[in-house]
């Protein structure tokens, strides 16, 4: 490497030369005001009186005592230095007699290096002995995490969208299919068993942010960035089930799912399936992005949540606005309805969520809950009398509807939480995270498992939403993310609860 200035190397060598000379000489300390240098018979008081100073005599005496103590300390260091020098010289003579070479040509460095290596090895041995138990604990915890693969197994991947997937849902009527809402302006319906795309809805002019299915009929409700919510009908026919894939062939496959290009699509693309382009009903009362929508119990009314800071309640048959639910200070992020009662919960960026009660036709009450310190990304009802809220403050809280003053459980995580879901039968909470993780907890806040995430399974980008399907005596969890795919997982509930 070139050095600035032509004489820099010469001056550096000249600077090193006297430094090496000084190393060769023993350390010497010039002693001043020592008692050995005092003339015979001269006492401390005589010395102090013979010197001109404006300081009081007592103060000068104290200073002299302190300087004397400092001198003795330096003297002890000097003697110790001489002893160490003699010891180093003797060690170097032994090494020279044994025929060992000293690195760098400096015998002092060689001896010190030998001592340092010996002490380092002893310290290393102590560290190994001291932390052996804690290391084994860490290893056992990793084993427990990898054991979650037996509890949560990959069922199917659903690939066909051309942009990130914001939301997904399972139909409540037969045939049971999976619905996904994507930023590519479309919603797709999928066969859960085969992973085949069955139908495409292309009626929106903006990102499709939410999808929910009617409780008894083959109708879907989608919310969009085009400031509308659509209700549309669908008819699908499930394909014949395919034989299970060869596991050995999957293991030998060299192509990794993470190696796919962003625009690459597996299976049938959305253009190759039947497409619905006209909505049965269009709900147009919002002045901003409609971020979520849901059906009230019975399916005669729907509620929508928007970035215009309001939630709207509509009649399905007439598409008329019944109530405008206002009060949030910032944009809404989600809305959810109770499975058996006329209750609605809305969440917002104002760090609150609100509970709207429509059980009494004459009174529409609202309660505001401030349990988070950042955006409340979602709040959902459980089959029981609970509300579970998730937030960007990296916490999830479980609330009792009968006493909402404080949460009954708090789950703390290491990443922001997106749209959560709770299984109806086992009441297990699935948490999708910004850091691509999906974790499972029970209602008391105990962690049960983490979905596997590797190159061959799991999401490669942010996980946006989760949804449960507990039909046919099995428990499946579906997740979607901004990597343009949805994934189905088979959850071994008995084993999961046994691990707990």
Structural summary, described in words:
24% of the residues lie in helices and 32% in strands. It is an alpha+beta fold. Strands 2-3-4-5-9 form a five-stranded mixed β-sheet, with no helix packed on it. Helix 3 (57-97) crosses helix 4. The chain is elongated, with a radius of gyration of 38 Å.
| Radius of gyration of CA atoms, rounded to a whole number | 38 Å
Strand order of the largest sheet: 2-3-4-5-9
State the helical fraction. Answer: 10-25%
Low-confidence stretches: 1-42, 101-116, 130-146, 247-268
Strand pairing plus helix content: what structural class?
alpha+beta
Query: Helix count?
Result: 8
Which shape, going by the Cα principal axes? elongated
What fraction of the residues are assigned to beta strands by DSSP? 25-35%
Largest sheet: 5 strands, mixed
* End-to-end distance: 61 Å
* Mean pLDDT across residues: 80
In short:
The protein has 500 residues and is of the alpha+beta class. The protein contains 8 helices and 29 strands.
């Amino acid at each position: 490497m070139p050095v600035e200035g032509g004489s820099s190397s010469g001056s550096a060598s000249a600077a090193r030369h006297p430094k090496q000379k000084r190393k060769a000489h023993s350390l010497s300390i010039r002693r001043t005001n020592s008692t050995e240098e005092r003339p015979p018979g001269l006492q401390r008081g005589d010395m102090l009186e013979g010197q001109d100073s404006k300081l009081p005599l007592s103060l000068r005496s104290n200073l002299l005592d302190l300087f004397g103590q400092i001198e003795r300390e330096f003297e002890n260091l000097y003697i110790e230095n001489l002893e160490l020098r003699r010891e180093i010289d003797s060690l170097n003579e032994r090494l020279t007699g044994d025929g060992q070479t000293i690195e760098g040509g400096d015998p002092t460095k060689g001896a010190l290096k030998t001592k340092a290596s010996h002490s380092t090895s002893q310290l290393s041995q102590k560290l190994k002995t001291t932390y052996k138990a804690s290391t084994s604990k860490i290893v056992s915890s990793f084993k427990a995490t990898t054991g979650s693969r037996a509890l949560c197994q990959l069922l199917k991947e659903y690939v066909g969208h051309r942009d990130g997937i914001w939301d997904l849902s399972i139909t409540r009527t037969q045939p049971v299919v999976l619905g996904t809402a994507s930023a590519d302006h479309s919603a797709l319906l999928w066969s859960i068993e085969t992973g085949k795309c069955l139908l495409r809805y292309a009626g929106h002019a903006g990102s499709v942010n939410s999808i929910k299915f009617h409780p008894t009929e083959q109708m879907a409700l989608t919310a969009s960035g085009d400031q509308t919510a659509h209700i549309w009908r669908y008819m699908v026919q499930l394909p014949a089930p395919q034989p299970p894939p060869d596991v050995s062939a999957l293991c030998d496959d060299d192509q990794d799912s993470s190696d796919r290009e962003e625009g690459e699509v597996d299976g049938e693309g959305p253009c190759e399936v039947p497409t619905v382009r006209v909505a049965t009903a269009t709900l147009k009362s919002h002045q901003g992005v409609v971020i979520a929508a849901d059906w009230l119990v019975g399916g005669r009314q729907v509620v929508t949540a928007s970035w215009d800071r309001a939630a709207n309640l509509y009649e399905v048959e007439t598409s008329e606005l019944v109530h405008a639910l206002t009060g949030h200070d910032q944009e809404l992020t989600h809305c959810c309805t109770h499975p058996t009662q006329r209750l609605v919960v809305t969440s917002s960026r104002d760090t609150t969520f609100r509970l709207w009660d429509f059980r009494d036709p004459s009174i529409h009450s609202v309660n505001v809950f401030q349990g988070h310190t950042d955006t409340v990304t979602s709040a959902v009802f459980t089959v029981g009398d609970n509300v579970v809220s998730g937030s960007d403050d990296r916490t999830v809280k479980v609330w009792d509807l009968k006493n909402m003053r404080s949460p009954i459980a708090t789950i703390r995580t290491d990443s922001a939480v997106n749209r959560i879901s709770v299984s109806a039968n086992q009441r297990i909470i699935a948490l999708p995270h910004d850091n691509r993780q999906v974790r499972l907890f029970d209602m008391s806040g105990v962690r049960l498992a983490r979905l596997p995430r590797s190159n061959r399974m799991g999401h490669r980008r942010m996980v946006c939403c989760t949804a449960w399907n507990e039909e046919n005596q099995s428990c499946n969890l579906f997740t979607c993310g901004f990597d343009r795919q949805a994934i189905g997982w088979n959850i071994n509930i008995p084993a999961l609860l046994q691990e707990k």
